[in-house]
Amino acid sequence: MPSLPDMTTPDVMALARDAAASQPHDPHLQDVDLKPAFFDWLCRMGDNTAILGHRISEWCGHGPVLEEDIALANTALDLIGHTQMWLGLAAEVEDAGRTADDLAFLRDAMKYRNVQLVELPNRDMAHTLMREFLFDAWHVEMLTALLQSGSPRVAEIAAKALKEVGYHVERSSDLVVRLGDGTDESHARMQDALDRLWPYAGELFLGDGVDAAVAKAGIAPAPGDLRAAWERTVDAVLDEATLRKPEGRFDVHRGGKQGRHTEHLGFILAEMQFLQRAYPGASW
Amino acid sequence: MADPATRPTVDQVWDWLADVPDPEIPVVSVSDLGIVREVRWDGDTLVVAVTPTYSGCPATAVIDMTIESHLREQGIGRLRLERRLSPPWTTDWITPAARDKLRAYGIAPPVDGTAAAGAAAGRAARLSGQGLSVACPRCGSADTERVSQFGSTPCKASYRCRDCLEPFDYFKCH
Questions:
Q1: Highest CATH level, class, for B10-83
Q2: How far is A167 from chain B, CA to nearest CA, in Å?
Q3: What's the pLDDT tens digit per position in B115-140?
Q4: Tell me, which fold does domain A26-278 have in CATH?
């Protein structure tokens, strides 16, 4: 994702330093002890939006109707925009000379920190929309909590992203209801998607040492704190959609946040990173 | 240019920016949209702070480039563009004159205070018929319907007028 500085000047690092100098002061960026956890946490935020954005973008030009095609492409674009902000801040925190583009295009699967839910294949429209809804419902709660972050840099990204994610969850919940409470065929497909995706949703609420460190620093909520609000939204929408919430555990598939992924992530990265791997440093 | 006595004033720069068109909606300028947040001199360098509209809007890089080339044409040598995220851009900053220009161009201007709440309550309100009313920019009728919350660019939704039957863009609230 080349930005203007990449296009107009060779000295991207100098510009990044200038840009950083004009940002609100955030003491967390100088906290050496916090750095590894803060960096990892920012990668988790940015990798979730990068991978889901990429997945959704696969629909571009293939949507079932024009309006859906456009909506999916716009949603993907928003998420990729969020990725630039999260990974840009991650690169700044890391302070090792890498950029957001380096993090997105030059890390291998084991270094990716997204939850497994977002890397699963789209399969059909039902899976695409159900996955997006389960994620959106979490995303709204997370960003809302981050408005109160003790890190002004995190809070300003959250405030920006939340304006867009409000539209995402409005659309995805609306469509879950319309397709769930739709024809026999659409209902069956939505129920199938929910049953298949449910065991992946719980990873969003599992905390580890990284989460504990950023929570202790006042940067982000503990993941588990978001669960009750998420369940309220999900229960209300599924109920209206006449879909049955699965009874099994919802946190069976885990590990994405620590870099353990399904076989699907490598294929996404192979496509997403091809250009930078084949032509290192290429820009446009 | 670096000499404070001869360099352009900040007001002069704002005047120039009023002529820089938005790349997607050329009838409005970048200052009409409220995305230029600050103009100042930092020593001999002109600093222009710009805030993105939508975070993934592909026009953002083009907007920066257009601002830069426009100011260079005016003789600005040392220039730095800053990206400013906070406070986040809102359609409330679109000037009244720009709203008229949008309408004349065929794009319904935003109805302030109607950004998606992201809450189930917003959906419930819409389902119960309390949706927002967007007037058709062509015939003025309030009898319009939303086709999609998303449109031809990230900042727009797609609507249709039930009276004159024209489809139109709505600059959605952000």
A1: alpha beta
A2: 5
A3: 665 444 455 455 444 557 899 999 99
A4: Ferritin (1.20.1260)
